[in-house]
Amino acid sequence: MVKQLKAYSLVILLFNIYSKAKAQENIIVSKGNPIIADKYTADPAAFVYGDSVYLYTGRDVAPKTKNSYEMHEWLCYSSADMITWKVHKSLLNVKDFAWDKDDAWASQVIERDGKFYWSVAV
């Protein structure tokens, strides 16, 4: 009986985690150019894999008074139809580089032998 309760509790816990993750997924619908309009993005790079396209961008957060980019993170969006886009959580931040502050410039992803490599300019 105890083993059954533990297994049942684990299933409930996993279901709750999955449900929260699904609830936090953000979907946007493109209405033309720019494709991504929920945030100001710069330096997009498209990567097609399987039946989806992945769009990797820098996110510009510079105030209007600043005359250049200020990008602290890279964003990722994916779509199977180029209209409905899934917004993925920020996968990489300039804080991941001890020597950088505001320069989340252009990035690119490539696949080689089943592994994915993400190169970024900082």
UniProtKB/TrEMBL annotation:
Signal peptide range in chain numbering: 1-23
- Which Pfam family, giving just one, matches this sequence? Glyco_hydro_43
Q: Does the keyword Hydrolase belong to this entry?
A: yes
Note the SUPFAM superfamilies from the entry.
Arabinanase/levansucrase/invertase
Keywords for this entry? Answer: Carbohydrate metabolism, Glycosidase, Hydrolase, Polysaccharide degradation, Signal, Xylan degradation
Q: InterPro entries of this UniProt entry? A: Glyco_hydro_43 (IPR006710), Glyco_hydro_beta-prop_sf (IPR023296), Glycosyl_Hydrlase_43_Enz (IPR052176)
Protein origin, superkingdom: Bacteria
Q: Which family does it belong to?
A: Belongs to the glycosyl hydrolase 43 family.
Protein name as annotated: Glycosyl hydrolase family 43
